[in-house]
């Protein structure tokens, strides 16, 4: 019995990391339609911020979460202003531009922080395991799970119940009409991009104590994030949650009963088959073009 | 066309060179000799960019340090060793291309480089075709027999022969094997299983994760369910860091379920944090804490050259001492005879007092006699050496394959 629970918890833990990483991408893509290939590097920069704040200022991980969100949001804001703003409605060019930004970010980190692997210390209070219904689970993984859900709730609240969210939904549906009703769509886009970048940074900071921090770490995360977004459907926030849940539990199940190599291959295959029959993803809200 | 003036300047230059102390410049083939003008060119082929640059950078630095030390002390055979540095960018195809450049257009007499097996396999044909010499400092899976490669890292029998029986005796007979999914871990596990079978131990699971894998929660669930006595890990790169950190976060205890690794060096420990590494075991011929005058000198020189926070480890040490072996081989040769084949012949049986202890190049298979040690990681990020092999241990790259033997004439089927 505790094996089943511990399997479920493992699945949830994988899912929470997937969701953290994918949430920023889903928001940016869902609202602005920009396919942000630099998303993995936003995650990487978040992890490096955590490392920098910890090693230079002795700031613990939890205390540095808000500064990291703000730094990355600012970074996203600047990128949007300098580059992305000029490339809306040119999807191919944005892919190239964001990819280039990603490469530059990687090399920038390599030149300033160096190529070696870095590490971020886990908060002492969370570096133990706790018992959940008889199954022991790492306290830090549960913390990530809780925080991922909280972040989703905040995002959902912003999206659904604030005037910013209302404008955001209007712009998502039809930018021109929304503009003609006085919505400053440029500013909405910029804020969305900054928010998405900030969340990606948080994701990077949160996974850094469990994984390694290196200039190339973003590459794997961007693939995972795209898988989640493609499966969940681009415009749907709930789709992102549901699809990370499905992918997390599925990988955990397959990895336990065969191994991680098989799990990865089967999950990818399942997504390929699925988008053949449902190209819009599992959950998608109807949007007028 | 040779004009009188050109002829005169030419002879003047040669005369000056002979006065400068290179009498052999007059001997046969002097214009064709690889070592000319008091310089020997060697290639240095470690990735400075790309995914494995993290570790290869330290090998590059150890190599350059050794070359600088030799040149400062008067060079090899009175000649300056000139490193020609190329960056193969962690890509096997680029490795082959750069190796070709070093051998053909720079006319290097030897190339030092590579970390991954994939990159070594990629450059191998270049050196075999041109009969040049490649020096490979990394521990690797064995099962290779080339007369154009000098292997200064450990092969499976050198890391495992002492390690596995010691672990079985101290921890028990239920083993869990985990590795990254490629040739190196599979060959190591192959040999490990052979040893375990002889010792009557049991493999409860053997698992491979994709290269670069960083999500080990399912593996940790299996560890919790199986409760093995020893986890034998040949996971490489970033995955080592992720595995240790997640093991630590899950609250598993190295006292009862230690990880025994062939790939966790001071370098990986620095990246994962000492708290996650403490209590686990590694087998290697070299540890940074090894107490010898040569090692003290090496560590001090490395840190004063490249930074006080840098670590030396079991791949950077061979990168360092193989240059010294190169120097010794070159010094046995007349400058006109310096070419890759003669260097190889001069190298056979050559010994050097390395930081790890006295090492020797095996004449038959061009691997190196090393001095394996077992270390346990402490909470300060350094290893405590628990056991060292009584004598040096010979390399046998085909030990897991009883029918095969690597000899100077090539691979022999028994």
Quick recap:
Chain A is mainly alpha-helical. Chain A is 73% helix and 3% strand. With 414 residues, chain B is an alpha/beta fold.
Describe what you observe in this structure.
The complex is a heterodimer of chains A (289) and B (414). Chain A has 289 residues and is mostly helical. Chain A has a domain at 23-218. In chain A, 73% of the residues lie in helices and 3% in strands. Chain A is built from eleven helices and two strands; from the N terminus they run ααααββααααααα. With 414 residues, chain B is of the alpha/beta class. Chain B has 14 helices and 17 strands. Chain B is globular and about 65 Å long. At the A-B interface, helix 1, strand 2, helix 10 and helix 11 of A face helix 2, strand 7, helix 8, helix 9 and helix 10 of B.
Task: Give the helices and strands, then pairings.
The complex is a heterodimer of chains A (289) and B (414).
Chain A: H1 2-32, H2 39-57, H3 61-82, H4 91-113, E1 129-132, E2 135-138, H5 139-161, H6 163-173, H7 175-180, H8 185-207, H9 218-232, H10 237-257, H11 260-277
Antiparallel strand pairs in A: 1-2
Chain B: H1 4-19, E1 39-45, H2 53-72, E2 80-86, H3 92-105, E3 111-113, H4 117-130, E4 134-136, E5 149-151, H5 156-160, H6 163-171, E6 174-180, H7 183-199, E7 202-209, H8 217-226, E8 230-234, H9 238-249, E9 259-261, H10 266-272, H11 274-277, E10 281-284, H12 293-306, H13 316-331, H14 340-347, E11 351-354, E12 357-361, E13 368-369, E14 373-377, E15 383-388, E16 404-407, E17 410-413
Parallel strand pairs in B: 1-2, 1-3, 3-4, 4-5, 6-7, 6-8, 8-9, 9-10
Antiparallel strand pairs in B: 10-14, 11-12, 12-13, 14-15, 16-17
Helix pairs in contact in B: 2-13, 3-4, 9-10, 13-14
Gap from first CA to last CA of chain A = 49 Å
CATH topology label of the largest domain in chain B: Rossmann fold
Reported for the largest beta sheet of chain B, the result is: 7 strands, mixed
Q: What share of residues of chain B is helical?
A: 40-55%
Tell me the strand percentage band of chain B. Answer: 15-25%
Q: What is the CATH class designation of the largest domain in chain B?
A: Alpha Beta
Tell me the structural class of chain A.
mainly alpha
Total strand segments of chain B = 17
**SSE pattern of chain A, N- to C-terminal:** HHHHEEHHHHHHH
The CATH architecture category of the largest domain in chain B equals 3-Layer(aba) Sandwich
Task: Give average pLDDT of chain A, whole number.
Answer: 90
Q: Look at the structure and name the CATH superfamily of the largest domain in chain B.
A: Response regulator
Q: Kindly provide the radius of gyration of chain A, computed on alpha-carbon positions and rounded to a whole number of angstroms.
A: 19 Å
Report mean pLDDT of chain B, rounded to a whole number: 89
The chain pair with the largest interface is: A-B, 40 and 37 residues
Strand order, largest beta sheet of chain A:
1-2
Oligomer: heterodimer
Helix count of chain B?
Answer: 14
Helix fraction of chain A by DSSP (H/I, runs of at least 4): over 70%
Q: Could you say which overall geometry of chain B the principal axes of the C-alpha atoms support?
A: globular
């Amino acid at each position: 019995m505790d094996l089943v629970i511990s399997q479920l918890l493992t699945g949830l833990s994988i899912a929470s990391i997937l969701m953290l990483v994918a949430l920023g991408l889903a928001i940016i893509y869902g609202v602005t339609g920009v396919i942000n290939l630099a998303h993995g590097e936003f995650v990487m920069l978040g992890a490096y911020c955590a490392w920098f704040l910890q090693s230079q200022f002795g700031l613990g991980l939890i205390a540095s979460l808000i500064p990291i969100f703000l730094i990355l949001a600012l970074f996203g804001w600047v990128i949007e202003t300098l580059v992305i703003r000029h490339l809306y409605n040119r999807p191919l060019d944005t892919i190239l531009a964001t990819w280039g930004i990603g490469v530059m970010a990687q090399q920038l980190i390599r030149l300033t922080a160096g190529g070696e692997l870095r590490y971020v210390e886990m908060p002492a209070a969370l570096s133990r395991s706790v018992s959940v219904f008889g199954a022991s689970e790492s306290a830090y993984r549960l913390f990530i799970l809780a925080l991922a859900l909280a972040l989703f709730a905040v995002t959902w609240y912003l999206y659904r119940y604030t005037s910013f969210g209302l404008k955001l939904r209007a712009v998502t549906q039809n930018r021109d009409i929304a503009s003609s009703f006085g919505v400053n769509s440029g500013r909405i886009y910029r804020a969305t991009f900054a928010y998405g970048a900030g969340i990606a940074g948080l994701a990077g900071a949160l996974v850094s104590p469990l994984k390694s921090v290196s200039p190339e770490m973003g590459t794997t995360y961007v693939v995972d994030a795209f898988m989640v977004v493609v499966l969940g459907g681009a415009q749907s926030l709930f789709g992102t949650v549901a699809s990370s849940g499905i992918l997390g539990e599925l990988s955990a199940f397959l990895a336990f009963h065969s191994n991680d190599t098989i799990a990865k291959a089967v999950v990818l295959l399942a997504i390929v088959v699925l988008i053949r029959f449902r190209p819009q993803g599992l959950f998608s809200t109807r949007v007028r073009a | 066309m040779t004009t009188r003036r050109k002829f005169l300047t030419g002879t003047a230059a040669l005369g000056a060179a002979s006065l400068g102390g290179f009498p052999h410049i007059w001997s046969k083939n002097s214009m064709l000799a690889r070592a000319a003008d008091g310089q020997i060119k060697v290639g240095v082929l470690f990735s400075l960019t790309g995914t494995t640059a993290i570790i290869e950078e330290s090998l590059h630095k150890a190599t350059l340090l050794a070359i600088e030390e030799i040149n400062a002390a008067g060079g090899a055979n009175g000649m300056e060793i000139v490193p020609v540095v190329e960056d193969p960018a962690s890509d096997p195809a680029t490795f082959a291309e750069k190796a070709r450049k070093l051998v053909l257009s720079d006319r290097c007499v030897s190339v030092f480089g590579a970390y991954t097996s994939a990159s070594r396999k990629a450059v191998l044909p270049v050196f075999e075709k041109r009969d040049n010499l490649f020096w490979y400092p990394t521990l690797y899976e064995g099962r290779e027999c080339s007369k154009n490669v000098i292997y200064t890292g450990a092969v499976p029998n050198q890391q495992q022969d002492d390690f596995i029986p010691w672990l079985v005796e101290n921890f028990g007979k239920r083993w869990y094997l985990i590795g990254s999914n490629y040739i190196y871990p599979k060959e190591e596990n192959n040999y490990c299983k052979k040893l375990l079978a002889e010792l009557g131990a049991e493999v409860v699971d053997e698992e491979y994760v994709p290269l670069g894998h960083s999500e080990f929660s399912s593996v940790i669930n299996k560890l919790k369910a199986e409760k093995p006595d020893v986890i034998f890990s040949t996971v490489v790169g970033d995955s080592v860091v992720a595995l240790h950190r997640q093991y630590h976060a899950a609250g598993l205890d190295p006292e009862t379920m230690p990880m025994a690794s062939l790939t966790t060096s001071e370098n990986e420990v620095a990246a994962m944090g000492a708290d996650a590494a403490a209590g686990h075991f590694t087998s290697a011929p070299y540890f940074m804490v090894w107490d010898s005058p040569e090692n003290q000198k090496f560590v001090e020189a490395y840190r004063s050259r490249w930074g006080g926070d840098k670590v030396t480890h079991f791949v950077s040490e061979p990168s360092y001492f193989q240059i010294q072996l190169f120097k010794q081989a070159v010094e046995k040769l007349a400058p006109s005879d310096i070419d890759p084949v003669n260097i190889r012949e001069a190298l056979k049986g050559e010994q050097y007092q390395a930081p790890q202890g006295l090492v020797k190049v095996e004449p038959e298979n061009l691997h190196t006699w090393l001095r394996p040690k077992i270390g346990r990681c402490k909470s300060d990020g350094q290893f405590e050496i628990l056991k060292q092999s009584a004598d040096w241990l010979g390399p046998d790259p085909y030990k897991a394959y009883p029918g095969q033997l690597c000899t100077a004439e090539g691979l022999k089927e028994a």
